[in-house]
Amino acid sequence: MTLLLNPAANEITQPQLWQISVERYHEMIESGSLTENDRLELLEGYLVEKMTVHPPHSFTTDQIRDELTAIVGSEHFVKSQQPITTAESEPEPDVIVVKGRKRDFVQRHPGPEDVALVIEVADSTLAQDQNWKKRIYGRAGIAVYWIVNLTERQIEVYTQPSGLTAQPTYHHMVTYRETDEIPVVLGGVQIGALSVCNLLP
Prior knowledge:
Blueprint: E1 4-6, E2 11-13, H1 22-31, E3 40-43, E4 46-49, H2 55-69, E5 76-80, E6 95-99, E7 115-122, H3 126-140, E8 144-149, E9 154-161, E10 170-176, E11 181-186, E12 189-195, H4 196-199
Parallel strand pairs: 7-8
Antiparallel strand pairs: 1-2, 3-4, 5-6, 6-7, 8-9, 9-10, 11-12
């Protein structure tokens, strides 16, 4: 972040950051002020540039999407790198499992009440996913959040979201290593398990 010098006070100050509402964000997209080429997502009211996707990240995202699609059944479907709309954010997680049918979302993006599982694949974004994104998803009350930690070759599963509290988070976390199977839990019911090593590049 660029720092500005305040000559009157002879001290370093940070530039003003502006927040916008989800409604204003949607207006900017609809008017063409923002397009897919801008590679931005709205996090707690701030427009944040999305990181470049490298091949291992892309492989892992596709692998998880395909393996989940094979087991979720007719009451859910899987989306990849598409928005979730919360009260103050519109993140675009790498994979989500959504309750309902695709046609239920012709006119809107899924909200927290529609999302059974949210997944971020993390390499250069690990700190953001473990802090900022975890806070957003925990505040929204999304039941299960996976971070696929490519750096340490493990999957972190967060459950028991705090909801709208002073310090939103998840109260429980389990780490699954390459030799483990990770349970897939939707709506409190385990529908299957996936081999962690098959999901990693």
